[in-house]
């Protein structure tokens, strides 16, 4: 029984650090977040942060992994709720770009993570590519889109979506980048359809 209680305490400490860091990174940004301030807000010490995440950068990576998983679940729900596979794929791509305007995703995932972690995020990108690969392969097998190498196409589409999301996130709150990106996406995706 004491062993389980210790495991629960470890999980609770980790969850507190993640939640507190996520709020701090989302409201203040990574660079302006003091490790001492957010560990104190969580009622923990810097030692707890170092033990669980190594450093502030490791904590950011953990927050981004958590947010990526949430974003993927939301995107999967979009695909699952669509009338057909093509609509699900199209709506999923659109939803990803729309997420780029959500302040927390914008600041943590699309700005700070790229600036601080850069190429240290290949696992998240690889998961997105695999997911797109499967969707595209299914659409090819159904004859909905033209046949080509699904992994190559997944990488091209993923790269386009990520770059457009970064562009959207980098604009002012009232900018017109999202509608412009969505228009471009429609043209791009129409080109995939079988004739």
UniProtKB/TrEMBL annotation:
Q: Which residue ranges does the Swiss-Prot or TrEMBL entry mark as DNA-binding?
A: 34-53
One Pfam annotation reads TetR_C_41
Example of a GO MF term: transcription cis-regulatory region binding
Gene3D superfamilies linked = Tetracycline Repressor, domain 2
- Give start and end of each HTH tetR-type domain: 11-71
| Keywords per UniProt | DNA-binding
Task: Determine the domain of life of the protein's source.
Answer: Bacteria
InterPro entries given for it? Homeodomain-like_sf, HTH-type_TetR-like_transc_reg, HTH_TetR, Rv0078-like_C
What is the name of the protein in this document? TetR family transcriptional regulator
Q: Which organism is it from?
A: Microvirgula aerodenitrificans
């Amino acid at each position: 029984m004491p062993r389980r209680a210790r495991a629960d305490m470890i999980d609770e400490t980790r969850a507190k650090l993640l939640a507190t860091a996520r709020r701090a990174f989302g409201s203040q940004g990574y660079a302006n977040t003091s490790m001492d301030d957010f560990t104190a807000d969580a009622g923990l010490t810097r030692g707890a942060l170092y033990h669980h995440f190594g450093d502030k950068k490791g904590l950011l990576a953990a927050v981004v992994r958590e947010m990526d998983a949430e974003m993927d679940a939301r995107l999967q729900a979009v695909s699952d709720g669509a009338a057909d596979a093509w609509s699900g794929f199209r709506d999923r791509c659109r939803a990803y770009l729309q997420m780029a305007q959500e302040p927390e995703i914008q600041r943590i995932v699309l700005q700070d993570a790229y600036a601080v972690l850069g190429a240290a995020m290949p696992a998240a990108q690889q998961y997105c590519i695999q997911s797109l690969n499967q969707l595209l392969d299914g659409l090819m097998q159904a004859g909905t889109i033209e046949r080509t190498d699904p992994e190559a196409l997944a990488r091209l589409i993923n790269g386009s979506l990520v770059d457009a999301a970064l562009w959207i996130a980098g604009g002012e709150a009232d900018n017109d980048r999202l509608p412009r990106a969505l228009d471009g996406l429609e043209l791009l995706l129409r080109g995939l359809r079988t004739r």
